[in-house]
Predict the structure.
Amino acid sequence: MNLDVKAMMNRKSAVVAKLTGGIASLMKARQVEVIKGKGTVCGPDMVKVGASRELKAPKIVLATGSLPSELTHLPFDGKRVLNSTDALSLTKVPKSLAVIGAGAVGLELGSVWSRLGAEVTVIEAMKQVIPGADAAAARTLASSLKKQGLGILTGATVESAKVSSRKISLSIRKSGKKQGQKEQGELENLDVEKVLVAVGRRANINSALGAGINPERTADGRFLKVDENYTTSVPGLFAIGDLVGNPMLAHKAEEEALALAALFAGEAHPPWCGPVPGIVYTEPELAWAGESEESLKASGMDYIKGQFSYGANARALAAEAGEGFVKLLSSPGDEKLLGAVILGRGASELIAEAVSVMAMGGCAEDIALTIHGHPTLSEITKEAALVLSGRPLHRA
Amino acid sequence: MNLDVKAMMNRKSAVVAKLTGGIASLMKARQVEVIKGKGTVCGPDMVKVGASRELKAPKIVLATGSLPSELTHLPFDGKRVLNSTDALSLTKVPKSLAVIGAGAVGLELGSVWSRLGAEVTVIEAMKQVIPGADAAAARTLASSLKKQGLGILTGATVESAKVSSRKISLSIRKSGKKQGQKEQGELENLDVEKVLVAVGRRANINSALGAGINPERTADGRFLKVDENYTTSVPGLFAIGDLVGNPMLAHKAEEEALALAALFAGEAHPPWCGPVPGIVYTEPELAWAGESEESLKASGMDYIKGQFSYGANARALAAEAGEGFVKLLSSPGDEKLLGAVILGRGASELIAEAVSVMAMGGCAEDIALTIHGHPTLSEITKEAALVLSGRPLHRA
């Protein structure tokens, strides 16, 4: 079997073109003029496009998103030291690839190129992949990806890098703590053809701000400070999306855009509610929303949990997708659903039910007493809710 | 590429064995004795197993399910005139297969064997496939399956059949109404190797009832009559599942079993609530729950609807699954969600969110204002809810 990377990329471009073309048509249908060019806010009600064109508007919305964070000792060159966009457009499979950072971007793109034949090593400074996600799910995900051939080093940092004409040499410091060694772990060398730097993103604040336009930042300086109506400290200047805070996710930015548009229109648009789901598009997928065991412990809140395994679900077994679990977290008294973690096939879609129930202020019992089609993966969520409610069904 | 039907069936058997083995372990863990044999209720508190063994119990639960309905002019023979169980165990792909009945069983098994190479013709007496399901979804599903090579005749009945040593000849009467002909349509002959009769199932009432045990039937005689506690007219005799009414679905039977077990245990187990989802496991899948446009029209209820297409969803396009739609139905005043229909990839899993929201008495807005991960298919449900609420997003 041969892999035609060019055909794959052409197909990707065609899908992207169709989607962006669809947005362009909608803009036109709604009589929104789209001007292509670099915009700069040069006054509270003035945007300059390119060198000459000036647009006057009483309200200006900044939505310039975020940019991949760069490592000072390994600056992006677009060819061998890659950001996520570069890594989506390679024209052939690299022989070897180091991925710095085991967040969503690192694991997704790392596992894609690994599956396509590259020897991939993901290097993560924290003790777990997907830092911040449920620790047990992250462990299971890492172990599953390793079984599929992805190299993963956690608790490891790239101390230095040397880019030469033939290769990139990374000097990786492993944490020695776990083995009971001194804090300083071993130093390991890794030579690779390409490096994907996926150590996070930073709000793209400055690119659209002209001289003298200095909206206030958040305390840590990383985001623009806005109030609940997305208003910055500059009159008439609003901001949404990655610019104004975490999580840096398209669906969170979209909801902020909807809420702001409704405000502008003077509509009684209730604000969106419920948690923002996080998704990692690996196989198995990881999705979560609301509180995690870690966040509840950190804030000293009591909780009860219910967990059920993919391995005991009919559809998962029939689809050879028995790896993973659903974990639901509730407050002990009223069983109000506080959080959900799903690791496994289809997690990205299954999380929607838990998010909607949380948004409605529902309880584990609301899921436990609702009929779920058989055979479906959604029964795993129901069974986890039954476990939480003290009525396990297909679990001893 | 070669198809190894035997390997496929072995794998199927292994999965089934694992699942039934799991149930057996759970029974053991919960100290439930399972006695294998044919049980007959021979008194209000007495079950006979086989010829000799007698079990005394103050409470007896009938859960004997249903049997495939037979056609008098085409009785099952297990080899060439098949029921659904037979059609799951063929050892090679038939050259040609007629499927009588385009319900879930007929379309699922018909499309499986069609995909594996058989020339399959599905014959349905009603005007649409999946009678009772949303008419527009059924039309789109039929057209999609036809494009995949499945033959489908609607408004057609098998008038007679002749089983000879070499073939089965069906005489099919097509409805002439649509073409403006007289009511009596053309007669067409179809010769096939095998026939799957999938014209429905009937409650398996009598097989476990001994002489003199005659619990009352429903008015139409098709089911056992039970009250809200699953009690039949015979003291101490209970019944659940396909025996007591439609829909004949495993997940409905399971919920009834849970409710009855809780009643027996004297537990305050609230009854399950919300609609029972129906699912057709074709590709695309069809899933629905609650009211349909047809049922609302029939009962004279006003409704509003919101529909959104898979073709405008990023993940669907990326997965080449742009066929299908989500349709949500609400009452006009409070937008209370009354029904949902999903045709498309993953419909069986996506329906869970709508069912849970309906079970909680939620509104379309509860889905519209909840963040759905991007890119996911669940965004189609959200967009349909936005359309229903008069705030279409990615639709002109």
In short: The mean pLDDT of chain A is 95. Residues 161 and 170 of chain A are 5 Å apart (CA to CA). Chain A has three domains: 35-65+202-264, 81-199, 278-388. Chain A is about 30% helix and 25% strand.
